[in-house]
Every structure is written in C-alpha cells, then in structure tokens.
Structure of Cationic amino acid transporter 9, chloroplastic-like protein:
Amino acid sequence: MASTMDDSRHKDATSSSTCFSHFCSSALRAKTLKSSSSTNNSSDGLIRRLGVFDLILLGVGASIGAGIFVVTGTVARDAGPGVTISFILAGASCVLNALCYAELASRFPAVVGGAYLYAYTAFNEITAFLVFMQLMLDYHIGAASIARSLASYVATIFELIPALKGNIPPWVGHGGQEFFGGTLSINILAPILLAVLTVILCLGVGESSAVNSFMTAAKVVIVIFVIIVGSFKVDVDNWSPFAPNGVKHIFTGATVVFFAYVGFDAVANSAEESKRPQRDLPIGILGSLLVCVILYVGVCLVLTGMVPYNLLGEDAPLSEAFTSKGLKYVSILISIGAVAGLTTTLLVGLYVQSRLYLGLGRDGLLPSIFAKVHPIRHTPIHSQIWVGIIAAVLGGLFNVHILSHILSVGSLTGYSVVAACVVTLRWKNNTGNRVFSKCISTWCEGVLCIFLVACCGFAAGVLYRFGTHFIFMIVAVVIAIMACAALCFRQAYSDPPGFSCPWVPIVPSVCIFFNIFLFAQLHYEAWIRFIILSIVSVGIYAFYGQYHANPRLDETIIYHMAPEEDRH
C-alpha cells in the first residue's frame, strides 16, 4: 500500500515536472526568419497592392481623427493649453518608436505581425503573445471608443435636418442610454457603423485602401482649413496660464493622447500587402507620423487659443469652438471632416487587428480559423469579422469615458518591446555575443541592462507622479545612463539590411525609458488592467497556446506580388 502511494506521488511529481518543462521549452522558443521571403502565387495569401503614398495615407488615416476630433477637448480640460506639449511629448516618443519600427519593418518586409512578430523573433514565444494581448486590448477598446464618437458626429449631421433636430434619442447616437448606474450605455449606431466598415474591409485591401485614401485626403484638407481660419480667431490671453493644473497633468495628458499616434504601427502591419516593403515601409512609417505631429500641434494651438480651456466641449470640441465664434459654416465642415477622420481611424484600426490575428492564427497561438485567407478577396475574412464583432459589442454596450481610462498601456509596453528588439536583433548578427563568460552570457547581460533601463524609467515616472524630491529622479536617470553605457561598450553591433535606426542602442534606450516613464503616469485602472491581462494571457498560453503553437520555422511565407504595371 505504501509502495503504491509512493509510486503515485512519483508519477504526479514526474508529470508536473514534465508539464513545467514543456511550458518552459515552448515559451522560450523563438522564431527564425530570413530578411526576405520567396514569393508564391498560391491562392491562400495576401496580395501586394499598397504603394508608398497608400502607406502614408494609411498612417495618417489611422491617426488624424481620434486625437484632433475627440481627445483634444478632454485632455485640454486638465492640461489646459499645455495639451500642445502633451501632443509634442507623445509625438517625440513615437518618433523614437517609429525609427525602431522602420528598421524592423525593413528587416522583415514580407511577413505580417508587426510588434508580435518582432518580439517572437528577438525574444521568445511567450513575450510575443503577451505583446499581442496588451496591444490587442488597446485596439479593441480604441475601436469601440472611436465608434462611439463617430456615432455622435453622424447624429449631429443628421440633426442638421430640421425634422430631426432634437428628436434623435440618446440610445441612437448621442452618448447612449445608461443602465445600472452608467455601467451599461446602449448605443445602436456605433455597431451599425462598425458593421459597414467591416464589410468594406472584407471586400479587399484595394477597395478599403481607396476608401481610406479618399477620406483621409478630405479630412487633411479640412484640418488645414481649420488651422488657417481658426488662427484669425485666436486670443493669446487664452494661452495663459499655459499649464493651469501643473506640469504633471501635461505628462498625464501625453499618455492619453499617445494612442492618437498609432498610425505608424498600422503601416508596419501592412508588410505583406506593400508593393515594395523594404523601401516603402520606413517612408510610410516616418512620413505619416511627421505629418500627424504637425497637424496635431497646429490644431491644439488654434483650439485652445479660440476658447478658454475650461469651456471646451468633450464630444465635439472643434465644432463647438467655431460655433461660439459665429462661424457656423466652419463647424458644419468640421463635423463632416470629423466623420471622415474617425471613419478612417476606425477603418485602419480594424484592418490592423485582423492582420495581427492572422499572424497568430498562422503560428497556432490562436485557432486556425484566424489564419484563413479568402481565395478571391485575399483578406482574412474570419479575423476581420471577429474583430468587428468585438468592437461592436464594446461600442454598443459601454461608455467611452470608462473605456478610455485604460488606453495606452498596451501601446507603451508594446513599443518598448519593439525598441528592445532592435537592440537584441543587432546582437544576434554577431555570433560572439552568444559565448558564455564565467557567470553570465553577454546576451543575458544585455537583456538585463535593457530591463534596468525600463525599471529606471518606471521608477522616475512614479517618483515624479508622487512629487518626491527631484534628487531621487536624478538617481534613476543616472542608473539608466549607466545601463545604456554598458549596452554601448559591452556589446558588439552590426548594421542591418535596409533602413537602419540611428545611434543604437542610445535611441532605443531613450525610447524605452520615455515610454515606461509615461506608463508610470497612467491611471491606476490601467496598471491593474496590465497586471490582470498579463496573468490571463499566461493562462491562455499555458492551456492552449503552448500545445498548438507552430512557429513554422522552416516554412515559406506566401504572398502575392502586385501586377508589374502597378509596381511603378
């Protein structure tokens, strides 16, 4: 009897050890990819239709809308005219991230996946899956928030018809019909708009790109018109005080508006549908981001100069600002531009989500249905419908204000991982970095230095947030500089093919520090969301991902080339 019990315990211990060993071996494996992939005209791949101008418009289409037409008024209520600095800070952080994205997009120009793919290649499977989950929640919530705002603008345009003015109920478009103390907020127009855009995306990348290009061009023209007209109505006294609630609110505002710059991430995720990805992706990423920064700053200055910050509306700040100045015709034009802007932001956001699901479906980390591509339309229809349903449920049932509190955390952490990928992938080209020293490998030493930079960024952010003495922040910055110096002098780097991020590892290190500093400024709800989602993600991977993952290390990525005449 005792012998039987001992055997049973031994088997249980062995089984537990085997499960843990399998989990570790699966979680720590990395994907190996070449710089380019062979082409194949099979019917189950995406098709290359996007040129450099399409990519720039894709990035601008993803960004201009949420920041200018929705977030500006909300953040300005806390940051005041300093919301301009919030956009500049978020833009500066994104420029650093864009340089890192541009290098990796040029390095792996033929594979869908973006940040998920880069983390899978530079680090391991579990890191890639965690990045996907954090980014995807941001995208889902962002799509729902933008759909709500778009529904409000569409309802405003309908109310220009005299018979409908004041007769559209809240549950149709304006806000929503609240239940259970505001926990639920029913809005039926947001899901309808999401369904229409999902159908457009399912038709094909060519059709959706044409819609995006037309509406993006229209809204950029309107934004420029707004800046020019609004500049004649600016009262410089409204810019004083510039930071009425302190500099801290400017940094907090930067974390909120950070999501408005995610357009360059959309460009990176179009790698398999770009005609000349190695050349065009870096141009599209950096070009679209610079255009967005200029337009955002211009609108923020005009908006806060026209109307005192505490009188700005939250739902439609631009329209209300021009209406208060007697420029009703401009407010109508702004409403039309807002509809175009939010539509393209939503369209591109849904597009990116489906491509990320496609990448995980191919690798087996999600069910294989997400990996299926329509043989005629050459779009991942199942993934596209899925992300449309998720956004429709969130946008139709929950209040935008509640959802916006936990935005940006996924983007900040994901972009930090991408910056770290630039550094580690430079090491992987040098075989000497894998040689073990007496105590620790050079590769592990470098990863620890990157982690130390991130910890210092978080520590500096927390210290700043709680108003501690500045000397403690200086200590955190000095430690980060020392870690960066170790990366510079203790590692050997090689130049990658294609676009190269300048000053590696300095630029990626600054990028990581600043991103995590902004992360520390987030609301407490965002921190809790990050921890809970990370735990849930590990659980999903442990029970599903590790057993179904198929990294396809030796398989060829399939995609279609554009017709020869379209590549010129």
